[in-house]
Each structure stands twice: as C-alpha cells, then as structure tokens.
Task: structure prediction
Amino acid sequence: MQFNSFTFLGFFAGLAAVYYALPPRLRWPLLLVSSYYFYSQFRLGYVLLLAYSTLAAYGFGLTLERRKGKPGAGRLLAVAIAAQLVLLIAFKYVDFISDTLASALSPVMQPGDALALPRLGWLLPAGLSFFSFSAMSYVVDIYRGLIPAERHLGRFALYIAFFPKLVAGPVERAGPFLAQVTAGVRFALPTFTFGLQLLLWGLFKKVVIADRLADFVNAGFTDPGFQSPITLVIAVYFYAFQIYCDFSGYSDMAIGLAAILGYQLMENFRRPYFSRSVAEFWSQRWHISLMRWFRDYLYIPLGGNRVSRPRWHANQMIVFLVSGLWHGANLTFVIWGALNGFYQVVHHMLGGARKAVAARLPSVLWGVFGIFLTFHLVLFSWIFFRAESVAQAWTIITKIWVSLPILPMLAGAYSWTAPFRLALGLIVVLLLVEVVDEFYSLWSWLARRPIGLRWCFYYALLACLVVLGQWGMSKFVYMQF
Amino acid sequence: MTEIADDLAVPGPRTVLRGFATGWLVFLAIALLLYGALCAWSEGLVHRYGHKNRFFMIATAPPRTYDFAILGASHAMPVGFEDYNERLERAVGGSIINLSVEGAGVLPNRLMIDYFYSRHTAGTVVFFLDSFAFYSRQWNEDRLDTALFKRAPFDPALVETLMRYSWARRLAPPYVLGFTKVNDQDRFAPDLPDSEINKFDTTYWDNPQFDRERVAYLYPPKIDQAALRHYLKEFSALIDFVHGKGGNFMVVKPATPPRYRDALPNEAVFNETIGKLLRARHVPYYDLSSTVADDRYFYDTDHLNRDGVQAFMNAGFVAALQAQAKACPRCARPPGAGSRVGPRGGLQGRGAMRR
Result:
C-alpha cells in the first residue's frame, strides 16, 4: 500500500474518521493495529520481523535500564545493537558480500571453477533500514540515560511501527515520540489543517513532479551507451529533482499524515538545493533525521571532530561510507558515500582558503556560487546513486564529458516536446515555491490569507493532482532502502 | 464526533465543530463541482481528439452490421493506419472496423468485442493471432489498466461490459468517475499510436540484438503451460461468444519476418495446440505469417510498414477476407453451424449463410 495510491488514501480517510470518533485512550491501540495492517500489506511475513525488532528493543531497553552503570552494560548494549543489525545483515548485506567476494576472487580462480559462496536471495523487507535504526537509537538513548525505558509494550510498539514513518522515515527518536503517545492526542484544528496541507504538497511533489521526471530519467539511465549525450544530461539533472521530490514528497506526506493524527514528526528536508556547501547540505538540509542519527550514534562515538585532524577526516569518511552502505548493498552506493565523504573532507581542508575568498567577494555572489557548486557536486554523486552499476555510471560520465564541447549545439537541436516543457515548468514552480519558503514559511503565510485565497490554492493543487498526476503504482525511491 | 468536540480546547466547542463541519462540506461541494467541470472538459477533449480510439469508434458510430471486425494486438494495427482501412474495404468490398489494440491479449480483445456487440454486429470477427498473447498476465489482466480507457467516451454499455467480467470490474469506478479521462496525460494529442505517426514510413535495419530484446519483452522468461491453458480456454470462450452472437470467427496469423518467427519460444507447440483448438471449433485459420518476409516491409523488428501492409494485403489477406465473405456474404453465423477446416494458408472455413 503506497502513500500515492487511492487505496491508501481511502484507508487513511477511514482511519482518521474512526480515530477521532474514538475516546483518546483508544486511539493509540487503533494506530498500532492500523500500522501492523499497513505493513502486512507489503508481505504478511514481514510483520514478524517488525515484531521481532520491537520485542528485542523493548526487552533490551528494560534490561539496559536495570543494568545502567553496572559492569557488563556496554556488552549488553552491543548485543542489543547486534540483535537489530542481524536483520539488516541477513536481508541486505549477505548476498552483497558474497557477490563482491566472488567477483573479487574470480580473477585468481581457475577457469570453470565458480566460487560458491552462500547467498540467501531474500527480498529486502520494506522499511527494515528505517525501523531497525529507530530501534537501535532507542536502546542507545537508554544506555546513555537520555530517556527512560518504555514499560508499556503497546506504546513502544507504536513508536517502532507508526505507519506514516515506518517504511521510509523520518528516523524518529523515541523520546519525543513516546512523550506524545503517553500524553495522548487531542484534536487541534491548526495541526490538522497543517497536516492536510503537507499531505497535499507531498503528493504534488511525488505524483506531479517526481513521477513525471522519472520518464526522462529512466530514458537516460536505460542503456546509456545508446543514448545521446543531451538525453543523459537531461536525465542527470532531472534525477536531482526527481529524487528530491520523491523523497521529500514522501517525508512531507509522512509528517502530514502524522499531524492529521495529532503527532509531530521531525523535519527531514529543508530546501537542500539552496545549500551553500556540501557540509550544509548534509548536516542541515537533506535527510536530516538520518544524518542526525549518524551524527549522534556513529560520528560522535568515533570521536567526531574532537580528535586529530587525520582522524577527524577519517571519521567523516567512515560516516559517509556507512551511509552509502545503509542506502544499498551495491558498489554504486559505496562510491556515492565515498564521494560525499571526500567532499566533506575537502570542504574542511579548504576552510581557510574559502574564508579568504569569501571575504573578497560580495556575499550574494559568494552565496550563489556556493549554491551552484554544491548543487553540481551533489548532482555528480547522484549519478552513482541512480546507476545500476559502476560501469553504467562511468558510461554516463564519460559520454557527457567527451560531448561537453558540442552540448550547446545538441541542446539547441533537442526537441522541446510538450512533456519536456511541462517537466521544466514544474521544476521552475518547485524552485519558486522553495525560494519563497526559504524566506517566509509558506504554510504560515498561507494561514494568514483570507479563506478564499487559501481555498483557491488548495483547489489549484488538487486540480494539478487529478489532471497532471501520474497515478500509477510507482514506488517511492527510498522504500527500497 | 462528540470526541472531536471534546478535544477542541476552545470555548463553545459545538459551535466550532459546526463551523468546521460546514466549512468542510462547502469545500467538498465546490471541489465536486470543479471536478464535474473537469470531467465535462475532458469528455469534450475525447470527442475532439479520440476519433481513432477503439472505444470511441464503437461508441460514436451509428449502430450497424460490419462485414468484418478485426481484433488483435499491434500486428493488426497497421492494416488500419491512415486510410488503409478504407483501402482494405474497397479491396475486399465490405465494411471493416479495426478494433485491435497495442499489446492486447485474449482478455482485452474479449472485452472489446463484447462492448462492440452491445451496439453493433459483425458478419465475421477476424482475430490476428499472436502467441505472446497467450502466455502471461502482462498482455491480459495487466493490460487492462486505466490508460486503456483514457479516450473512452462515457457509455453505460461499457460500464455494463466491465462489470460483467471479474478481471475488468476494478476498472469500472475510475471509468465511471471520469478519472481515466481527467488524468489523461496526452489529452491534447490525437489518439494515434506513435508507430502510425512516426514509424509507418520507415524501414527496419536488421539487428539481432533488437530481435532478442523484442522477444524477451513479449514473452515470459519461462513458458508457463498453466497460463497457456488458461488463456486458450479464454480464447475458446471468445470464439463461443462470437458464435453465440451469430457471427463467424476467423483467425489470421499476421506476416512477420523469418528472423523474428524463428526466435519465438514454443512456437511449434503453440501452432499445433491452437490448430487443434480451431479445428475442433470449425474456425477458419489463415497462416499468412510467411507471406511477407523481406525486412524492407517492416518498420521495426516485426511490424509492417506502409509497403508491408500493401504487400500483406496483396499476398493473401484481401483474398482471405474475400473468400470468407464469399463463403458467408454479409452473414451472421447461426449458432451451431460449423465450418470446415482445411490445410493451412488457404481458405479453410465455410460459414453458414444467414437466412
């Protein structure tokens, strides 16, 4: 059941009606049952994994609280984390390791001797990387004494399984979420309205923009060797906006759905393509919940920046390599992570030079240059993120590179079809909205407008959804992680 | 609802609730009105640009009896491109309606002919036989998607037809609500396939890789015998349906190049199986697959271009239709009447004369 399907929207409308008709004390059980039902729609058996992850984190959480400060607590934490990691390793990494090893050893094998390493061939359950990370952060927070262990299994299960965030985040922390469950949800019209607004905007980004751009992106990334360089350039640029609209659209919908149900989830995107540096892009604007997770549970335990300079850079590389592997068990993701780690390291190594140049340039010009450079660095790394293999990514890069001198001519000859013009127009609309949102909160601004204007805005969005929306069975990109 | 009222931490919760509910109702009412306007606009666009859409052709043509109704997938479409349907009518000397749809297997064709019979009749239903249509859901249940109905004018008869089949019922709500048309992304373009607009005059340049990719696209990686049996059963039901309506049924195997035919999986077994089925039902079968072989007659791996259609018509298709018409002049076939099955490639059937 995808958020961008009529089945889900119907399910959610019915759920919201029943939810608010129930007394507040019965609302969280309804949400828990609905969340498990929602997850069972992907594959019934995966519910067992969700239950396992929940029970393991719950049990270890209680034990860790009892053993806090006592000898062996650290080992217990390691076991608690391993209990979550085992799922990720089994479903996500065993086959990758086997394939990589077999491929690496094949040159030294005798011809005809196939290296038979074990492969499980299991499908990756939707959202596994997200809910196992939520479970891990919970046990670590208890170990650190940041939160008490939740004694109510049902409420804790809702934290792990809450369906708006279950399959693609945000990677919510236990503390703020469980506090909301315990306090109980009261209907609040502003929150409800805000939720609807975000739901609409997220849907717009997904079904109107992202899925429309997907046609051009798929055209370029399918057999790139046979595509013209201009098709590849368009595919690469459009992919930057496709993945942004796809993932931030999902996050907006998740936060909106939660708000309709009275819950507040953490912000996940903050107009990332306006970042002035790659460091800003990752630390403050793109997939904020995951990058904060890596900061709090990997980067800081590694020593963060309070270590020697080489060690600090190594820590940055480690975080981004792990982030790459988190996205997928494929060399393309490893290279994507390494590239972004490399950007971070270079960014910090050139700190002094950057400041010197910035001091001599008008701040606006420096800002625009920073946005332009950051966007293109990220764009380059997205090629590896989207490509099915390193060879495919390399084909795209080399083909564009050797055609750079003739690209303007090819662009001039490119057929500006109606779908292409519409796709470009939608990107312009998105950027305009984001520019406004960068300076004023669009939704707060809208809330202060007369009802007629607000409704016109909503009707325009709804009309775009039904007239321009690509309502297929298109999945969200991040659900595969 | 009382709970919502209780939740509202402001004075006069019932008043606020009433205002909230009224606001929602007004918003929804206006939204429905706007949606209705969108539906009307989309319906207008269908009537402006959808003239060659098969559902449009059926819905808008005055009720009549055609001599031939052509069913099939993309191999049957070129004989209806541009003015070739009229040329074919002149050559055969009878009226013809081409209802073939790209990628349409047995089930979409069943739906199409059922809908056709709700308004019209045909002396003979001509089925262009492609084996890929019998192997997977992709060209049957899955081919019946909302996109298929994006140019179908609103017609209660089509709703009835959709509701009649368990595999088509799910399409009734989006069709009735007009969503298939409101959401049509190509709303301003004439409803013509890309092959008719851009490829019909081109010539194929042989590339074995393209043949392999084409076959891999059309056929499942492994032939599923259960699926084959299932769709053969549906095909038999389609024949029985046409016979039940008093029409004749004839099968034509369209012209394809030998390099393509040789690459088709399980084709010999399929030919034998379908031959048996057709003989048992006394259905005339014209194997015209090898009548046009040269690559210059194809615009891609397996579809006839302009010269190819002309060659195909001259090489046996027109003769087959004429023979069928002669055997059964403007007839509707009485239920129970049989046809003779002869050797492949020639006239094999004799439909019973009407009255």
User: Anything to note?
Assistant: The mean pLDDT of chain A is 91. Residues 26-185 of chain A form one domain. Chain A has two domains: 26-185, 191-480.
